[in-house]
Design a protein that fits this description.
The protein has about 625 residues and is of the alpha+beta class. The protein is built from 19 helices and 19 strands. Helix 11 packs antiparallel against helix 13. The termini are far apart. InterPro entries: FAD-bd_oxidored_4_C, FAD-bd_PCMH, FAD-bd_PCMH-like_sf, FAD-bd_PCMH_sub1, FAD-bd_PCMH_sub2, FAD-linked_Oxase-like_C, FAD-oxidored/transferase_4, Oxid_FAD_bind_N.
Length: about 625
């Protein structure tokens, strides 16, 4: 389309309303949430009818926590992620006895040692029902052992309690599994056999927040969404404006007001909302309503803000970690710079609880920017998605905060199985969809940049159709579609999930290869963080089938290795991929990791059977 014609279409459609969703929060969080614009800001070759969306859905979805043991086990026979790795219980580990339980009760009290069957059953199963204690493989396989599942959960409230538990378990050689929100996807947070579960949910205190530098210090059991709410609302720089005679004065103070206070002061002209300084967490996940920050650290979770703020290795300033022998390793610095010796905290970020139990964290939180836009776009082919990413980096630059892609199979699945969502581009014939989010501090400039980017992309044939969210519910709907794909796939049947890191130009090739291999036997979904080169490959069938699994593995790992990619971009290795690490790491690297494990955990009591192959330990 010629630029003149596109510009004329823009003028006819009217101005863009700038939104700032916290997956659906308004541009300014003190605006009325009743404000709504009942039409999308659409970019079309041919103008079409506008379709308002429904209201926002819950951010957590099914990640809000397993509500009962039965609920957690509903999908046990339907969801699988890897070929069955049949483990034998390590006979070197002791079995929990009454003396051990009495000791733990002396540390934690009666309520700290949970023996309730329903609560214990939930903790023995991951949220998807993929892995559960004593059955680390689908029930359709022959069981090689007859070991009871874990029957106790130890809920600690203090680092000292964790220290005493680990010291005792190390002496007695009782295997331990640290557990947070249990939202992982590779079996890293549940027992394989009868390991002692050390739950960290009780360690949920916010220790301090430096609202000058945006540094948060908290305990490992804090839920990510709660931390996000805290840093966005607790503590801000506020400007009071007042007059004495003909003179007007402004005063900067630090305060922790409520939203009602701020809105009231703004209405009376006492507060300049543009000068409020607030913060956000550097990561955001679909599981934020349940996952714990300690688990995020231990798995080096990536998420939706990675393209803007990078990995946790760059945002975590300090850690407190309890080692296998009970040593409390205090690295809880809040310094931005510290060049004294080895930076040991990086050993524990992404170690999945196999080297130590993270108990406290200090993390740098970026400033919350005032202007946010969310666009939902369609492309005719994957090449257009790649070129669109390059164009977004070039045109949007520093305000680009998310670039997520989905193929049309994902959209179809989401529309069928997610309640309360609508297709922003109904009845569209396109093969790929892209969600673009921008965040910045200059509303006018950001809007101009986004308009120019979309116009240029349409002229170049990269974008076939698109909409920009005009209110909270629309922005929430866009994100709900993207974040709900995993949830929707579970509702179909058996799901084989793979989390791959591949160069962007090759990223979708594996999806097409899988479709050729599987034909009509399964549906193959491709989506993920295109800006990070991270593909989520989901293969869905009505029921678990050994033949389907044999067509997937080890091909998916061999293909990824041949591209010099990673078999785990952000989910970790856990139980699912521990024996597959050689597809991404050299033998020398694996041996060095094993040496570190033996140094820090010589009896191998921490999260056994996970991360590293048993043959190297």
């Amino acid at each position: 389309m010629p630029r003149r014609e596109a510009a004329r279409l823009l003028r006819r459609l009217g101005p863009i309303a700038v939104q700032s969703p916290k997956r659906g929060m308004p541009h300014n969080q003190y605006e009325s949430t009743n404000h709504a614009v009942n039409s999308y800001r659409r970019f079309h070759w041919i103008p079409s009818v506008q379709h308002p969306l429904c209201g926002p859905t819950s951010s957590g979805g099914i990640y809000e926590g397993q509500r009962s043991a039965n609920k957690a086990c509903e999908v046990q026979k339907r969801t699988f992620g890897s070929a069955a790795t049949q483990f034998q219980r390590n006979p070197a580990y002791s079995v929990l006895n009454s003396d051990d339980i009495a000791y733990f009760k002396s540390i934690l009290g009666e309520n700290g040692v949970v023996q309730d069957e329903d609560r214990v059953a939930v903790a023995n199963v991951d949220w998807m029902g993929k892995y559960r204690a004593a059955i680390p493989f689908p029930e359709s396989h022959v069981r090689l052992h007859n070991v009871e599942k874990s029957v106790h959960i130890l809920y600690s409230m203090l680092s000292l309690q964790v220290s005493k538990i680990l010291s005792y378990c190390n002496t007695k050689r009782l295997a331990v599994v640290p557990q947070g929100g249990n939202t992982g996807l590779v079996g890293g947070s549940v027992p394989v056999f009868d390991e002692v579960i050390v739950g960290l949910a009780g360690m949920n205190k916010i220790i301090s927040f430096d609202n000058v530098n945006g540094i948060l210090t908290c305990e490992a059991g804090c839920v990510l969404e709660n931390l996000s709410t805290f840093v966005e609302n607790e503590g801000c720089e506020i400007v009071f404006c007042y007059s004495i005679g003909q003179y007007k004065f402004c005063k900067f103070i630090w305060w922790m007001p409520t939203e009602n206070h701020i809105f009231d002061f703004h209405a009376r002209g006492l507060v300049d909302l543009d000068l409020l300084l607030r913060f956000i967490m550097p990561l955001d996940l679909g599981a934020k309503g349940s996952c714990h920050i300690g688990g995020n650290i231990s798995t080096n979770a990536g998420g939706l803000r990675f393209i803007r703020y990078g990995s946790l290795h760059g945002n975590v300033l300090g850690l407190e970690v309890v080692l296998a022998d009970g040593t409390i390793l205090d690295m809880l610095t809040t310094l931005r710079k510290d060049n004294t010796g080895y930076d040991l905290k990086h050993l524990f970020i992404g170690s999945e609880g196999s080297l130590g139990v993270v108990t406290k964290i200090s993390v740098l939180t970026p400033a919350k920017l005032s202007s946010t836009n969310v666009a939902f776009l369609s492309c005719n082919d994957y090449t257009s998605c790649q070129k669109l990413l390059l164009a977004a980096r070039r045109s949007l630059g520093e305000i680009l905060s998310a670039f997520e892609f989905m193929d049309h199979h994902c959209i179809d699945l989401a529309m069928q199985h997610l309640e309360g969502v609508q297709n922003p581009l109904p009845a569209s014939p396109y093969k790929f969809y892209v969600l673009v989010e921008t965040t910045g501090s200059d509303e006018s400039s950001d809007k101009t940049k986004l308009e120019a980017f979309l116009l240029r992309s349409m002229e170049d044939g990269l974008v076939a159709d698109g909409v920009i969210a005009q209110d909270i519910s629309q922005a929430s709907n866009f994100w709900r579609i993207r974040e709900g794909i995993s949830e929707a796939s579970v509702k179909v049947g058996a799901v084989y999930k793979y989390d791959l890191s591949i160069t962007v130009e090759k990223l979708y090739d594996i999806v097409e290869e899988m479709r050729c291999r599987l034909g009509d036997n399964a549906e193959v979904l491709g989506y993920g963080h295109l800006g990070d080169g991270n593909l989520h490959l989901n293969i869905v069938s009505s029921k678990y089938d050994d033949n389907i699994l044999a067509q997937i593995e080890p091909f998916v790992y061999e293909w990824t290795s041949a591209q010099r990619g990673s078999i785990s971009a952000e989910h970790g290795l856990g139980l699912m991929k521990a024996e597959k690490i050689h597809y991404s790491k050299s033998p020398e690297a694996v041996q060095l990791m094993a040496s570190i494990k033996k140094l820090l955990d010589p009896k191998s009591i921490l999260n056994p059977y996970k991360v590293l192959p048993q043959s190297v330990l």
